[in-house]
Amino acid sequence: MLAVQQLEAGYGESVILRDVSLKVKVGQVVCLLGRNGVGKTTLMKSIMGLLKARGGSVSYNGADLTKKAPGLRAKSGIGYVPQGREIFAQLSVYENLLLGLEASREKLNAVPKEAIAKFPVLPTMYARRGGDLSGGQQQQLAFARALASRPEVLLLDEPCEGIQPSIVDDIRDVIRSIKADGKTAILLVEQSLDFVKSVGDYFYVLEKGAIAWEGGLESLDDEVVRKYLTV
């Protein structure tokens, strides 16, 4: 289980996250919601170790990761699909996938078949440069790269941002299939309410850097949406 306890983080003199606590269990899709600028990506970066926590803790299966470097967090079983994809434009699709193996706890010398099977278009593009792919194809590549390390926790930051509806449907199917396997904990940041309702089990809402609401799908009603999510 991934556990965040009373986390505080920010940039420079600015404090963005205040006393944030949440949990993600294996086999569960937990969705992090909130308006733009409330700290969702900051929280994902803090969990991954790309942003140093100023207070609180991040742990996985009881092991404290708060002071661990991002690479060690990845090797502990955390995969990350960042907002904006961060594909290496000059590297081939296959080379981008191979970089995902660096985070594996196992000594893998080839991209696992199960990572590619979820995105069957990628093998047809192995020789193409990452920068030549469409936005949707880059998102699939970023997702497959994260899956290449066989993570037990998957952090997904806006995986549907700026991509065509057909690939949004593909990503929804992939998340559902990972969830059905029951072996991975998923923390998902996504703006589309319809999307998160179609895959999520539990929901947290960030407001001004703090958890303002949490609950299951049955509790995510129009009042909550109007109060915390409507622009």
UniProtKB/TrEMBL annotation:
Gene Ontology BP term (one): L-amino acid transport
Family assignment from sequence similarity: Belongs to the ABC transporter superfamily.
SMART domains from the UniProt entry: AAA (SM00382)
Protein name: Urea ABC transporter ATP-binding protein
Keywords (A to Z) from UniProt: Amino-acid transport, ATP-binding, Nucleotide-binding, Transport
SUPFAM superfamilies: P-loop containing nucleoside triphosphate hydrolases
ABC transporter domain boundaries: 2-231
One example GO MF annotation: ATP binding
